[in-house]
Predict the structure.
Amino acid sequence: KAGVTQTPRYLIKTRGQQVTLSCSPISGHRSVSWYQQTPGQGLQFLFEYFSETQRNKGNFPGRFSGRQFSNSRSEMNVSTLELGDSALYLCASSLAGAHQEQFFGPGTRLTVL
Amino acid sequence: QKEVEQNSGPLSVPEGAIASLNCTYSDRGSQSFFWYRQYSGKSPELIMSIYSNGDKEDGRFTAQLNKASQYVSLLIRDSQPSDSATYLCAVNAGTASKLTFGTGTRLQVTL
């Protein structure tokens, strides 16, 4: 069974631009969660999508948004990029339940210049 | 107080020894607990999940949970140099799939 895939793997953007990241979950998984990982803050939860609905949201500004499609694929968007948005963005997929195991994709490394 | 706390390490153990990694959490409503391994430059890889008090063994790995003490640990038996990585403890306290992570413990297995 194929794992979680994320595209692109690397991105370089400049301040003020926007970016869209994509995540395809493991086949049969309906929940997709997004996390940001930085050296200073560690792994922080951004949001979770299940059945095309945002089920939970972390403590991030509204510049961070996401969506999920009917095939469970998910995208996250960051608008008006700031230098501090440079991070590894990780997507994790799980089965439907809240306490299921989550499996991470390889991540997208975003650098904001 | 951080929600999930881990000693950042590095924890250095000789090859073949038992590595003991510890994690405490603050939310008494936490229901599921996970250990992830992360190699430098890679994404986290799930090693163990545990949901009820006691021990859970999988190969060389044993996860231990004590909800009364709000404590979860990971034991790695017969440690190998390939086990050298950062180990992340994650906890889920809510009704959705939000994981709260500790900052991770860096493990070094020496020859």
